Amino acid sequence: MRNEDKKRVLELVHEGFLHDIGKTEIELRHDPLTLEGMERALLQGRIPVILISTWQLNRSRVPHWVTVCAIDDQFVYLHDPEIDVEAGETVADKQYLPIDRRIFDKMSRYGSVQPLQAAVIVGPKRTP
Question: Which of 20, 23, 98, 120 could form a cystine bridge with 49, CB 3.0-4.6 A?
C-alpha cells in the first residue's frame, strides 16, 4: 500500500478485529481454503463465504463477498447478494451462478507474488 495513513488505518482495523474475535469462539485460520475444503464444508452443511474480485464478472476490481452454494467437476456455483434492481435484475438472476473452477480460483485470490484470500465458513461449531 502506497499511502502510509491508509496502511495504518487498515492495521488498526485489523487489530480491532483480532481483539474482537479473541472474545468469541470463532476459529481463525491462516491456511488457504481450497476448492476441496469448500466442498467438505458444503457436505458438512456449512456455507463458504468468499471475498472475490469482480474483475472476471464485470471488469471492476472491486472486492465483493459471495456465497458458494455448490461445486462440481466444472463449476463453482455462487449466490451473489448484489442485485441491480435498476438494471432489471432479480434475486433469481444472482442465484446458482456457474463460474468455471479456474476462473473462480483467480477471482478468489489477490496479488501475484503472494496471493491473498479471505473466506468465512458459516455453520455449526465443529467438534474436535
Answer: 120
